[in-house]
Amino acid sequence: MSHASSLSDRVAARRRRRRGRALWALLVIAVVLAAAAVAWFSPALALQSVSVAGGGLTDAGAVRERVLERYRGTPLPQIRLAPLGRELTAENPKASRIDVRWSGPRSLRVSIVDRAPVLAVEVEGGWQRYDADGRAIDTVAKRPEGLPQLITRGAPSAATVRAAVDMLGQLPEDARAATKRAQAASERDLRIVYDADGRDVEIRFGDAADIAKKFEVARVLLGRRPGFIDVSVPDAPTTGRR
What is the per-residue pLDDT for 18? Predict the structure, then answer.
């Protein structure tokens, strides 16, 4: 009888412990939910300041004011950071990416990565700058220093700009330094005007395939002092006067 009673007591004790653990778990969950609710609505976490890093082409001050205009006084947990970054990127076409993260109990930090200009095309009223993806970034009044000039027939397509960027990127460093301007009627008609010891020589590459090989063929032919060198078929180059 005593053995049965002892077994019953142990079973009852285990049940009480299980109920106790369950109650503690529910209490912890309730505390966490309460804390989350407090944080969600708490003015102690309301946005008051925004710092911005990066930018240059993109107006960092305008980005900061835009965030504050929309979210000043909003508790930080209510601000969806990734969607906000995507929205800011879409609103600022000179930026390739804008990221947002928390930087304190009442502040956000915005990081801007600008699109990098790689070519400039002369247009009415100034110079249009393009990035490596062939997308126009902006138009500036003066020719940008340090950017290759691309001459095209009308506004270039993105594919044409990408091909011109690819061509210039494949040239040896000394050849890029001696390139006065690039020309692209299309992505299959790429050329450069090359400074050969003070003489302008037009080198015609055709498409952007094997540019380095094509240039080395052209380099050998520069000694003939031609006006142009056509290496679109590098195994059968031609030269002539412009």
Answer: 66
The residue extents of the domains of the chain are: 2-41, 45-114, 119-240
CA–CA separation, 190 vs 75, rounded Å?
55
Rounded to two decimals, what is the model's pTM?
Answer: 0.69
Rounded distance between C-alpha atoms, residue 156 and residue 74, angstroms = 45
Pair 197, 222: CB distance under 8 Å: no
Which are the contacts of 102, defined by CB distance < 8 A and separation ≥ 6?
Answer: 76, 81, 108, 109
Superfamily of domain covering 119-240: Cell division protein FtsQ/DivIB (3.40.50.11690)
Question: Which CATH topology does 45-114 take?
Answer: Ubiquitin-like (UB roll) (3.10.20)
Fill in the amino acid letter for 28.
V
The residue among 134, 116, 130 whose CA lies nearest residue 187 is: 134
